Amino acid sequence: MSDPVDALVGKRKREMDGPDSAHSVGWTRPRHAELADEANPLLLECGQSIWPVTVEYELYGELSPARDNVIMIFHALSGDAHVAGWDATWQEHGRPWRAWPDGKSPNWWDSMVGPGKAFDTSRYCVLCANVLGSCYGTTGPSSTNPATGRPYGVEFPPVTVGDWVKLHARLLDHLGIDQLLLAVGGSLGGQQVIELGLAFPDRAKGLAVLAASPQLSNQGVALNYAARQAIVNDPCFASGQYYGCCRPEAGLGIARMIGHITYLSEMGMEARFDSGRKKPDELRCDLFNPHERALGDGSGFIAHNEFEVESYLTRQALGFNERFDANSYLYITKAMDYYDAAQWGDGDLVKAMARARGDWLVASFTSDWLYTPAGCRRLADALCVNLKPVTYVNIESGYGHDAFLLEVDVLERLLTGFLKGLQR
Amino acid sequence: MSDPVDALVGKRKREMDGPDSAHSVGWTRPRHAELADEANPLLLECGQSIWPVTVEYELYGELSPARDNVIMIFHALSGDAHVAGWDATWQEHGRPWRAWPDGKSPNWWDSMVGPGKAFDTSRYCVLCANVLGSCYGTTGPSSTNPATGRPYGVEFPPVTVGDWVKLHARLLDHLGIDQLLLAVGGSLGGQQVIELGLAFPDRAKGLAVLAASPQLSNQGVALNYAARQAIVNDPCFASGQYYGCCRPEAGLGIARMIGHITYLSEMGMEARFDSGRKKPDELRCDLFNPHERALGDGSGFIAHNEFEVESYLTRQALGFNERFDANSYLYITKAMDYYDAAQWGDGDLVKAMARARGDWLVASFTSDWLYTPAGCRRLADALCVNLKPVTYVNIESGYGHDAFLLEVDVLERLLTGFLKGLQR
Question: Is-contact A131 A165, C-beta < 8 A?
């Protein structure tokens, strides 16, 4: 198919740097830090304390002697610390979920991170850490609860964007980094950048917020809610204690479908998927044939795919079940729903942004309906009113929310320039 | 709360005409017609024939001696034939699902139909019939399959918008109505109006298509798919043979949530629901408490409501379970996904619309993202290219897709004028 979305994905694939490429950071292994113990627990916003807390992170490039060349990337909902290069541990067992289970793709933002790329690892030291509550190496609901000896499940405390940033500030202390050159993230990662700028105004010289607004819309909350209800109402959810048993595959699959629809745009979906409809004589009389199961892979997920977009969503649902934990999905979407930067100003965003320091870059994408341009602009406006240095760009794109991952060329130009400005 | 959506809903409620009001058609009872039997089965687009077929319909006002004053209203996904007045049968048993189970509201488009209203029953004869596959009196998956003696369930044949219109043309024959003065419908009802205009070009003098485009977008298909997967993956779905057993309440509830989100607009949801977020000390530590069930009503649906929009969706999910059949939801959303008016022109909409006769009115709503203004306009454009008489209006509204039910004042002005033009 020669549509613009596939053309771009194709282009991204053509430009994919193998682990031996001069533009790749090569094979990578995550590092781990123990950042909370009984003597020094992490006090969460909900009032509960948690320990032990392990944080998984990756680090590429050399830390400068002045420790002033660190770019910290904050990942989104289903991301992890494996931001660049190729995961050397993918074929090793012991980790229940893998972001890229096939070992055939580089890590999630490899297009932006590596020697000679926007986040040039021959000049900068790039850091990315997995969030609390995730299933990718940092403590989360699938970790063992020391109080019970079994996985936390839904006994894991609720976590917030504020908790994540607090924990990542501990990681910076642990690594001896006082100030980041740049904090950057898209989507829920962008909300972490906002929070870092408000909770620790001196810890980043530059802050780049991509496709993220100070608060998710009620529409976004509603879609996350429907997604979570699909998980908790799946009988295999078993009140969150499904580890070692059957997993809520149908629930998580439906949740992923709902999420994935919000990452694309109406325009992008029209361009990407055949919109041909069945002709009358092609209609199937066994439409909801109860014996058909998705892809015949033995999974518990029943699917009835007729249209291209349906098969696509089914593949997303099945793939997500291989790589993500349903409990983590519950906790991370809740953190997304809870976030409200205006709480730093008692509900007044302009008042909140008065705390901000550093140089800000805010980028939205025209077809993003999850974190809309209008929502992102509210952040830029609140910074402007406070006379803070901020650049706001609304990038023309048909890729919807996913544009922050796909619009590599424009982001590269934008961030290279922004980084140059920070070092003047 | 004094927000615009509630203000409007309030206004609508204030204007609600009781059954004794001079502006109400009063208490109504549906009528039934047997429109297919073994000697005269209904041949469906899928190639299967079906009999017997009962159609439930309502009729208000007097048929003129020339039988030229009929307005036929086509209902949307979850609508029924009870379009105006008050349902006199609501408290009678024997029908498993009720559109308005509480008997405290008039029928679904009472704001538009009645003496002195847009569809003035003192001048016009107003007809509305329930579609094939529904659960509101016309034959559907919950009807008895004569071949097995038990409800059809998913053995019901797939139905299409074309099948509905074909069946309703039989109803017009049965009632001795050659030509409608006006065919009008919103959403999936609007698609039936388009289909009537193409399959039976002489059967309507005027055709009013509200919030409906010639084809649902891939985004709409994707959302319907996620909704259906929630139903078929609910263990209580039991391959569609759940009648008399537990019903797939969680699945249908989640489907309704997804659907309902598409009926509102982002703007409308911001205006309608509190967007306040929990302060840190209000966070619940038992976020996914497994013992909590929605509203404590003993239903099988687990909910965890923190935000206003979540409680709203939960109420929608529970209410829908009282009034709709999950199998009907599967079949009717499939018909919605299948529809493509361009098939009358071998995939070319302009060629298809060359068949059209009569006067057309196409109205879209600015914040409707299910049937977008751009999509609706494609219909008007295709009529224009063919030099057919068409009026297109894009109505400014914050109510999203639901605007076709809520923007009563502007629709009343628009349709009163359009009706006047048809009688010149």
Answer: no
Q: Which residues from chain B sit within 8 angstroms of residue A310, using beta carbons?
A: 221-222, 225
- CATH fold of A4-216+340-422 reads Rossmann fold (3.40.50)
For range B256-261, the mean pLDDT: 97
Chain B residue whose CA is closest to A372: B266
Q: Take residue A422 and report the two structure tokens written for it.
A: 């920070």
Q: CA–CA separation, B283 vs B128, rounded Å?
A: 49
Distance CA B197, CA A146 (A): 68
- In 3D space, the residue among A182, A171, A142 whose CA is nearest the CA of residue A42 turns out to be A171
CA-wise closest residue to B65 among B213, B141, B176 = B176
- For chain B, give every domain's residue range: 4-216+340-422
Q: Per residue in A20-61, pLDDT tens?
A: 899 999 999 999 999 999 999 999 999 999 999 999 999 999
The pTM for the full model equals 0.93
- Residue A59 to residue A48: CA distance in whole angstroms: 30
B97 phi and psi, to 5 degrees? -130, 145
Q: What 3-state DSSP class applies to B149? A: coil
The pair of structure tokens assigned to A58 is: 């990756």
Number of H helices, E strands in chain B: 12, 14
* CA dihedral sign of residues B60, B61, B64, B70: negative
- Rounded distance, CA B345 to CA A101, Å? 46
| CA nearest to B251, candidates A256, A311, A230 | A230
Known active-site residue A368: yes
The tens digit of pLDDT for each residue in B386-400 reads 999 999 999 999 999
Report the C-alpha gap between B242 and B248 in whole angstroms. Answer: 8
Alpha helices in A205-345 (DSSP H): 218-232, 249-263, 266-272, 308-323, 326-338
A313: contact with B, CB 8 A cutoff = yes
Residue of A57, A361, A376 lying closest to A181 (CA atoms): A361
Provide the chain B residues 8-37 that lie in CB contact (below 8 A) with chain A: none
Contact criterion met (CB below 8 Å) for B107 and B162: no
* Residues in chain B closer than 8 A to A254 (CB atoms): 226, 229-230, 233, 254
Give the ipTM of the model, two decimals please.
0.92
The type of residue at B420 is K
Which ranges of A176-306 would DSSP assign to H, the alpha helix?
188-199, 218-232, 249-263, 266-272
Reference A412, options A210, A139, A268; nearest CA is: A210
Distance (Å) of CA A38 to CA A139, A410, B237: 15, 46, 48
Task: Tell me which H or E stretch contains B289.
Answer: none
Burial of B386 (C-beta count, 10 Å sphere; 0-12/13-18/19+)? middle
Task: Return the percent helix, strand and coil in chain A, to nearest 5.
Answer: 40, 15, 45
